[in-house]
Structure formats: C-alpha cells, structure tokens
Design brief:
The protein is built from 9 helices and no strands. With 192 residues, the protein is mostly helical. 35% of the residues are buried. The mean pLDDT is 81.
Length: 192
C-alpha cells in the first residue's frame, strides 16, 4: 500500500472515530462540565486561560508557522494554511449562528459570537494539523497536542461543552484536509 493511500485511510479513521466520539459526547456534556468544575486550580485556571487566548493561538499557529514555512523553503504550505483559517472562520461562524447553542455559562458576556457550538478555537487548532503534518512531519504530535490542549481549555473554562470542541476539531480537521488537497491539485505549482 502506498504512502498516500495509508495517509487517506488514517485520516478517514480519525474522522470516523471523532464522529463516534461526538455522538457519544452529546449525552454526557452536562455531566462532564459539572465534573470539571471540581478540578479547578489556580495553576490550571491561568494555564488554560493563556491557551484559550484566540489572538495568541492565531499568532502561534498561523503567523509564526507561516514565517517558519517561508524560511524553511516550505512556502507551498502557506496558502492552504491561511485558506484553512479563512474557511474555518466562515464555516464555524455560520454554524454558530444557525445552531445558536447557549454556552455552559451563558451569563459570561461575549462580544463576537455568544454561541457555543461548534468551538471556533478547537476548529482553528485542528485546521492546521493536516497541513503542518505534511510540511513538518516530525512535529505532527506537537500540533495535535496543541489542538487537544486548546480544546480542553475551552471545556475547563466552561466556555464550551465537550461536544462543541469535538465538533470544532472535526470541522477544522476536515477543512484542513480539504484545503491541503485542493491546494495540491490546483495551486501547488505556484512559486513563492
């Protein structure tokens, strides 16, 4: 079996498992959030608040990564990286407005989009995974760990339910795969 076929099977497996986890998580959302409240500590409150900063997330995953790609002569990954961010922002925003699920703590004031489902932070964090996995395969576990920690931070801080972050991660991952393959098919020959 060639490398690309194995990669496609792995990606399909990840998507399938995530869909199953999403379906199961919907039944346990409230219980998980209640249980997490018992694990709060000052250290984790600060740690997850930093991880949950959307501007820091964008800076690390998109701006610094683009600079790294440019300097490492992996420039062909920059276009799908930013395309995945744009597509993720648009799709998740539309879904949030259509679904309009209240957050676990609705009394917290949000200025942008007050709705919970799906998690934009998780979606953005996982949209980069397929692209960065291809460009920096030795660091693939780092990208996944960052995505998982960001997703956990959103539930820990009571800003999302588990199903919100799983759905966000799934949407972001699929968008990342799609933009990468679209770029390979149509734009790969563009020289930077």
């Amino acid at each position: 079996m060639n490398f690309m076929k194995k990669k496609n099977i792995l990606q399909l497996s990840i998507i399938s498992i995530t869909v199953i986890a999403l379906i199961i998580s919907i039944f346990f959302d409230n219980r998980v959030n209640e249980k997490i409240l018992t694990f709060h500590t000052p250290f984790f409150d600060s740690f997850f608040a930093i991880l949950s900063n959307f501007y820091l997330l964008l800076f690390v995953l998109f701006i610094l990564t683009s600079i790294l790609m440019y300097t490492e002569k992996k420039r062909e990954g920059i276009l799908p990286l930013w395309a995945s961010l744009f597509a993720t922002l648009v799709i998740v925003t539309i879904l949030k407005l259509l679904i309009a699920r209240e957050r676990p703590l609705p009394e917290i004031d949000f200025t942008l989009i007050a709705y919970s489902f799906p998690s934009l932070h998780a979606a953005v964090s996982f949209a980069v995974v397929p692209i960065l996995d291809r460009e920096f395969p030795k660091l693939k576990y780092l990208w996944v760990i960052i995505g998982v920690l960001v997703a956990i931070s959103r539930v820990y801080l009571q800003l999302h339910y588990v199903s919100d972050v799983i759905a966000g991660a799934l949407i972001g991952y699929v968008i990342g795969i799609t933009t990468y393959y679209f770029n390979q098919k149509y734009f790969y020959k563009i020289k930077w």
